[in-house]
Amino acid sequence: MRKKVVLLSCCFMLLLIFQAKGWGAVSSSGFSISGAVQQPIRLAAEDLAKFQSSTVRLNEVDRDEFYSGAFYYRGIPLRTILEMAHIQKEDASFSKFLDVCIVIRNAVGKQVVLSWGEVFYRNPAEFIIAFAAEPVLPELPQGREKWQNTLNRPIGFPKLIIASDLYTDRCMESIVSIDVMVLNPSMKIRNADDQYVPSFAVDGAVKTPLIISDLSGWPRESATIKVTGSLKGYHGVQHVSGVPLVKLLEKAGATMDISTVYLVTHSDGYRAAVSFGELFLDPAGERILVADGNDNPNAAKEGRFTLHIPHDLSSDRNVKGIENIEVINLKKSPQVYIISVGCADSSLITLEALNYLNKADAVVCSEDIAKRYAFYIGHRPVLFDPFTLVPKSAEDNEHKKLSHPEREKLKTQRVDKAIALIREALNQGKSVALLEYGDPTIYGSFRGINAALADDEKQYLPGVSAFNAANALIGKEMACKGSIVLSSPWALKENPSLVKSAADQGDTLAVFMGLNEIESLIPLLKKYYPGTTPVTFAIRAGYSNSKRLIKTTLSEVLEAVRDENEEKESWLGMIYVGFCLK
User: Fewer Cβ neighbours under 10 Å: the N or C end of the chain?
Assistant: First the structure.
């Protein structure tokens, strides 16, 4: 009994020491899971500690044999996180997830690609997203002194840990996004029932495409497989020999980096992806084989060549009757993401906007957005403030003394400067997030910059516009007569027939940027609308602490605005005209 008490006391003391020493603290704003998932998710860093965790030890040595410490990492299995998001494929012709890959990026733009099979057909603890770490300290003082800086270094969490890799090149700190992708084979899929496939191709991102019909001259390896499928269960033990897939890829001069996957396909469309990491960084990758019909008694029916992955816990990736091995590199060209952050409160930013912000390496935004979204921007550099570099309008107060041609020339020069700074980042391989108020496709603030970018180097991420927020604040069906006309004071003055048409049809007129122009706009509206026409001002829509409505009629609009707009808001407001407001 005394021994048990002593043992429990020792364990308790160790626990106190362990807790006092502590695990490494979480150090980033979290990450998003998006792409081919039913439920996109964003997990803040502190959320990870709420899940049941696993602990693995990692001796961190990369392929250049650089040692960066030994640590016990605590984290959540990547499989658990992906199951929460629920992977979903739109293509029902091949329902299995064997052609799915997982693209993981970190805060400095590094990217790792995993295959679905290696994550889901291994033990879950081999792939974790770590949120804490404890260094493995040498017992001797001289060992601690030598490696003190390495073991005490700051670690960027959340961190991707792949415990099965010999080298830790795929282990990645400060991850910001997990993107689930479905690979589509470039080869033409055809019905190949009972058709013998005598050869296969190795193509795609290769230097020398291969057509292989005979493996007799290649180096061979043997493997023993416990064949267990997901549908029919256990099929017995199979002894196979074949050529390591790595040898075929090396011969073809295939692209080999951590953004590469290899899609193995049968002519009927059955396929499976294998990642670069599981082939070239995991010691078990050398035993991923392509076997010929000599080991397959059903070769005449299934095809001559078969992929075997002996260390998978399910044999579903054993593609029979291989016709094509396609090398696919998923490293994307840098892009400009033109992202809506919503029109007001930070809660109006969409999950998709956050997902794409996580894919960016640098940011362009106003000082206000940089402060309010600092948590999500993190350590990404802000290249410039467009409102400082590029005038919001050619009519800004500071430029009123200039002639119109002079203002336009200055505006063009500043847009050119902005584009030069963005292109400098793109040329460095960095994707840039341009953060806009409201929806950038509806009277966006930075139209000059956006228009100067080519279509293939930009992508719009629309969001909540002032129009959407104002509609919700008003709380009515704005298209009760069938249409809504969105316009600006200047456009309406230049095109009075638009006002007449809206008035004749009973359509609702929604005017952006009109608060300052209301006095000059009233005569035009009164020309086509009766004085009893309802008019509503949605002031600061989307700002929870200051949003408000001014409801009046066209004949009383100036007096109503003068009486109720106490704060004299001159920019953040929408004007609605029409009988749908009644």
Answer: N
